[in-house]
Amino acid sequence: MTEKQLLRRIAKLESMNDQLAAELHYLDKLARSLGFADGLKTLKAAALEMLEADEKKGAKDDSKSVE
Fold this sequence. Notes:
single chain; mainly alpha
C-alpha cells in the first residue's frame, strides 16, 4: 500500500472508531435512563445473569424429560 492509501485507511478507521464510540455513549446513556445504575456495565451483568438462569432452567427441564 502506498502512503496515500494508508492515510485514507487510517482516516476511515478513525471515522469508524468515532461512530462506534458515539453509539456506545448513546447506549450507555439509554441504559442509565432505563434504570441501570452503571449503564452498559450493569445492563451486561443483568443480561448475563438472565442467560445463566435460562441455562440452569434448561438443564433442569432436560433432566426431567429424561426421567
